Amino acid sequence: MKAWQVAELGEPRDVMGLVEVPEPEPGPGQVSVRVLGAAANFPDVLMCRGRYQTRPPLPFTPGVELCGEVVAVGAEVDGIAVGQRVLGGSVLPHGGFAEMALMDAATAFAAPESLDDAQAASLFIGYQTGWFGLHRRAGLREGETLLVHAAAGGVGSAAIQLGKAAGARVIGVVGGSEKAEYARSLGADVVVDRHREDFVEVVKAETGGRGADVVYDPVGGQTYQRSTKCIAFEGRIVVVGFAGGEIQSAALNHALVKNYSIVGLHWGLYNTHDPASVGECHRDLAALADQGIVRPLVSEKLALDTVAEGVQRLADGVTVGRVVYVA
């Protein structure tokens, strides 16, 4: 079968190569799938660069999120049948940017019939991260103001839709007019183009000086630091990641004086610490998808031979919406 493999670390376009490899065989608790769709995520970029918290052995096939048709079931797997269409995370080093991949049966869930393969491939990581970040970590409530950074990206776009589903007023921050239009199409009530406006001033103006109740931050660095200037009394800043490349330090005296909370979110830990909640989250997301309340917006579909360039565009920050390899 054909698969993209990373044999050395660096930028995706430089280190990803399309090669012939044997089809992976599922081990205990695993299933092998024919890949129907695999969404590009920033962890794929970071793993190519060797900068992600998980470092699979070289060579490996990236593609941490996918939708596939089950072709073989390993030992100790119940409730998943050959021929079933499932979505979830891959088992590295056999990721989704290939004709076949491996998945952990515990985090392989039935794909909603309301979503096509590309959409279903995009429903797992970003939406699960948003669901846990907004509900479990931040306790977002109806009527609150939610500030979403990188609102046109995979994680940010999911947070917009989930925030609206929760009854929040959503302010999205993006970089550029094309991304601004995309954030509006997702349902953001207010969109800030950071190239033209200061999001701190916009948030203060839109909230009568109160500030945002919840800040959803996958960027970090100066974005986090400036968010502390527009966080509300008893607000919550959810630290999701550091896509901006700078890992900030938190001034805890400032959190004390302004009475806000800083909460971290490592979504992957729920798979080991509270796996039942991951299934609960998927059922909620699938119901929202079937109702048309959340729907991943796929902006670009990739053929297998163009995957590396698509991942590089994500790395360069020029993509809008979800970029998905579709078989």
TrEMBL record:
CDD domains: QOR1. SUPFAM superfamilies: GroES-like (SSF50129), NAD(P)-binding Rossmann-fold domains (SSF51735). Residues 11-325 form the Enoyl reductase (ER) domain. It comes from the Bacteria. InterPro entries: ADH-like_C (IPR013149), ADH-like_N (IPR013154), ER (IPR020843), GroES-like_sf (IPR011032), NAD(P)-bd_dom_sf (IPR036291), Quin_OxRdtase/zeta-crystal_CS (IPR002364), Zn-ADH-like_protein (IPR051397). Gene3D superfamilies: Medium-chain alcohol dehydrogenases, catalytic domain (3.90.180.10), NAD(P)-binding Rossmann-like Domain (3.40.50.720). SMART domains: PKS_ER (SM00829). One of its GO terms (molecular function) is zinc ion binding. This is NADPH:quinone oxidoreductase family protein. The lineage of its organism: Bacteria, Bacillati, Actinomycetota, Actinomycetes, Pseudonocardiales.
